[in-house]
């Protein structure tokens, strides 16, 4: 495959415009068009279609665009790793994590690892599960930590680390505080919900579907675990939260647990890496070994 033509196609697909891509790449618009037409002939597929004054991707074009992005992200990743090797052997570890591991597990692990490996530069990004997986697939990070039951991506290895208890919580003075109720009863309460793409939000909706209960009405939608629990502590609504995040609020009698009949929720934490990735840096393997020792 002509990688130059593929790079041009990727820029056009990103901008949804041949003329804008040509302007940014500083080549003529007809030259871009010719390269893309040649690429379509090479792969035997129509990749772009006209739409008004712009263009749109066909289904095959969407597939190729996604794969090409990953290819060029890998190129950038290789260049970055080579620069690290030039800089006196200093290595970097790029990590993405969903909120729970990022706030309540990784800080201790990273601090301990850094003390034993001072020459390793570590960067941690926090996002929801959908964003974290995208960053891993596009070589923007070396590994990821997520809390997620299913919907595993075929290009990623999921290494189980541990289970975490999850509780339904309400304000301390709520009528359901410390009581046992049915899931249907609790779902009548206004809920503090996480953002779209959050695995906790997806899990709650799936739980309601399994128990044939309408999902709760969202009273507040907040990004992040701490923000959501603070809203409960301030006196509003109910939510599903990891016990590791809620326990300190409960000890201060700011929130209380609601016991739902016939439900004991545990959710798995996974360490995620890209499949079939060989010759990884020594830091990568050393850190994974350290994590396994930390939870054993």
Automatic annotation (TrEMBL):
Record keywords: DNA-binding, Transcription, Transcription regulation
Alphabetical list of CDD domains matching this protein: PBP2_LTTR_substrate (cd05466)
SUPFAM superfamilies per the UniProt record, alphabetical: Periplasmic binding protein-like II, Winged helix' DNA-binding domain
Domain HTH lysR-type intervals: 1-58
GO molecular function, one term: DNA binding
Tagged with keyword Calcium: no
InterPro entries on file: LysR_HTH_N, LysR_subst-bd, WH-like_DNA-bd_sf, WH_DNA-bd_sf
Gene3D superfamilies xref list: 3.40.190.290, Winged helix-like DNA-binding domain superfamily/Winged helix DNA-binding domain (1.10.10.10)
Family the entry assigns: Belongs to the LysR transcriptional regulatory family.
Protein name: DNA-binding transcriptional LysR family regulator
Organism: Lysinibacillus parviboronicapiens
């Amino acid at each position: 495959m002509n990688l130059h033509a593929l790079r041009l196609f990727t820029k056009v697909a990103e901008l949804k415009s041949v003329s804008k891509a040509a302007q940014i790449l500083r080549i003529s618009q007809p030259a871009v068009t010719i390269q893309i037409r040649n690429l379509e002939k090479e792969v035997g597929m129509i990749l772009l279609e006209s739409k008004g004054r712009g263009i749109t991707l066909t289904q095959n074009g969407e597939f190729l665009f996604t794969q090409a992005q990953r290819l060029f992200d890998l190129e950038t990743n290789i260049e970055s790793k080579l620069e690290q090797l030039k800089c006196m052997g200093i290595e970097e570890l790029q990590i993405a994590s969903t909120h729970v591991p990022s706030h309540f597990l990784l800080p201790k692990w990273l601090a301990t690892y850094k003390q034993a490996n001072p020459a390793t530069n570590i960067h941690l990004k926090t996002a929801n599960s959908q964003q974290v997986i995208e960053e891993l697939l596009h070589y923007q990070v070396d590994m990821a930590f997520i809390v997620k039951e299913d919907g595993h991506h075929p290009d990623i290895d999921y290494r189980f680390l541990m289970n975490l208890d999850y509780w339904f919580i309400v304000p301390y003075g709520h009528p359901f505080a410390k009581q046992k109720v049915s899931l249907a009863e609790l779902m009548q309460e206004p809920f503090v919900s996480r953002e779209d793409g959050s695995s906790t939000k997806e899990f709650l909706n799936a739980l309601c579907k399994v128990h044939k209960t309408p999902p709760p009405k969202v009273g507040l939608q907040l990004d992040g675990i701490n923000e959501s629990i603070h809203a409960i502590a301030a006196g509003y609504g109910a939510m599903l939260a990891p016990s590791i995040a809620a326990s300190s609020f409960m000890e201060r009698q700011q929130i209380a647990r609601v016991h739902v009949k016939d439900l004991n929720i545990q959710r798995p934490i996974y360490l995620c890496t890209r499949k079939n990735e060989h010759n990884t840096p020594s830091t990568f393997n050393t850190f994974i070994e350290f994590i396994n020792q930390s939870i054993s």
